[in-house]
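PT: before anyone asks, these are the final sequences, not the draft ones from last week. 760 residues across everything. Please model them as a single complex and drop the result in this thread when it's through.
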Amino acid sequence: MEFAVSAFEPKLVAFVCNWCTYAGADLTGTSRIKYAPNVRLIRLPCTGRIDFMLLLQAFGKGADGVIVSGCHPGDCHYTAGNFHARRRWTLFRRLLDFVGVDLRRVHFAWVSAAEGAKWAELVNDVKTKIQALGPYDAFPKRLDGRPQPAEVA
Amino acid sequence: MEALRQRARELLAAGTVQAVLGYAAGSEPDRARPCFVRTAAEADGLIWNEHCRQNLATYLQKPEVRALGRLALVARRSTLRALLQLAAENQLADGRVVALFVADDGAVTELPTLAAIEELVARLPRGLSDADRQELDRIAALPLGERQAYWAGEFARCIKCYACRAACPLCYCARCITEANQPQWIPVSSDPLGNLEWNIARAMHLAGRCVDCGSCSDACPEGIRLDLLNHVLAEEARTQFGAEPGYSVRKDYALASFKPDDKQEYIR
Amino acid sequence: MTEQRILSRQNLGPLFERLAADGRRILAPVRHGDRVGFERVTRPDEVALDYVQTRTSAKSAVFPPYEPLLQFALQGKDVQVAEPAPDAAPTVLFGVHPCDAASFATLEAVFTWDTPDLPFESKRANLTIIGLSCTQGDAYCFCTSVGGGPGDPRGSDILLTPIGATHFLAEILTERGQAVARLAGELLEPHRGNGKDAALAQIPPRFDARQLGAKLPALFNHPAAWQEQALRCLGCGACAFVCPTCSCFDITDERDRYHGVRLRCWDSCGLALFTLHASGHNPRTKQSERWRQRVMHKFAYQPERLGVLGCVGCGRCSRACPVDMNLAQHAQQLAETAV
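LR: through. Structure below.
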């Protein structure tokens, strides 16, 4: 076993659809493809269900990077959920960029149930990029009564 | 101004409308306040100047105002657009409101139907004012870190009074997401995250619907330029999806429709 | 115990240094373009001394927009509850006008009438108020209608009144003021010359708040007094949130599965959900009822129950209102309305 000695292991949150990307990530595992363990998957029925607020919640709870992934256009289990999601993300990205949220920390992808390898590449790539960016301290964090880093130290 | 008063008197005298919703003189010369004119004599109090800014379409959803009966509404371009957008969202029945559009030269046009509003608004110049355009471009051109710092500083002054929401003609939800608490989406407190999430959510829920009236910013007691968030989204919705909210009563909400070839170069 | 001294403007710098050396932070009005707000400062040249009114009030110094009341954590089957350490930093509120200084009496009446409110009291106990008399007012100011005035010393520990361009008359009014005076030492020079009246702004009274308060209960069901005024009210919370005496709050838990914090956040009677019951019933369904509550609370209920007026005449609500709901104007109308 190798243990990479790194100062910073980013926390990634991936919002994925049930029908394509979640199955794709499952295939990554059953294919025994190794990829960065930094990602926490959150499975939702469809990318159409992925409210932009979920992304903000992830950052507010300490995510350093967020991935959103679902079925390729035309493959949506519900026919058009991903088409609607795509429009929403296009606008949301513009707003995030305008208010100074770092778009290098928000990644969108289409990963089908057959693309286990693509999922591994995606996560590894995002992890490497966020690792280079460091922790996302500029994003305000949720007040939830957790000890603040200063109190822990 | 006299043309406006005269038209209001006529509408009230003929019984066409039960009230004229317009502007009256405010506390100071640089202010105007919405007023509800119900008799021909009260029409003398109507004024029209550059301070008449609050979008009066906002009042149409209020039960107390609905109870007044059929209304005439003193309107600017953005008021007309708000009426059309409300109609497109099934919030305004045709004929419930007579719009009294006041042109820059003070000429008053009576618009009794949504079709008449559509026809007139199509002929009006479009786009942001030069000052809004410059401010928007200035902020968009800042480096990421400065942009982040600028908005963090602005949002830090937000006290969550929700005047922006109350002043908006298109924020008419009976229960707003910011008050949903099972589950809770947006923190109640005006802490940095609560303020960021509220202001992003407000702008996103108006994306492709906002008619660029600026009432949100005008209402903000701290003078935060919230309207810029809406303008940015309106511009993106227009360039990407051809969204032109408030120009037609047709339902064509950009986020409730799609094209298979919509932009996606940022998706891998 | 009032003592009158003279403070030269040049001596503000040394005074600020001595306050800082004593471990006190200084909050003062700072100008940004056309906006003035209370901020932490270290030097007098940061302070706006010629402002008419800040957008939001000084109440944040003792009653911030949000503050933690307690923290809790689930550990095994136990719930650990901890009260956050009180914010007890000694603070000097410098340059507040007499209306804001007077507002603290109303806040104290609310927060200390029954169970001591520790988050409030810990901050109030450490607050020294150096007021600044008004040499100018605007159309929204109405302190003289509610028992105050541009040179009213009530609420201030020290009240400064500009005398000419170079000096202040310093009235040392309380024990806390004396403590600052001792720190200031020779910076406060013996008083020579006239009183402050000539320097003060002229704010003509528009109504008598005590008389209005006595009359208001009879106007409660007046058919026109409230509905007409409230028709244009949008139902936001701007008036309450900029108000120096509005003290209503909402208590909310921010939490995840294992940790949480209980927060107190500003709330407003103008918001439709303010009185919504869990059952779905809302005793104030109309905006006119909410506006009436706001006026009654300030001018009738608080004087009756707590012995203090709920309004200091700062005019912020009227400046902030998006639709120009002018409180002083409406109070004047009510005062003139026949019962």
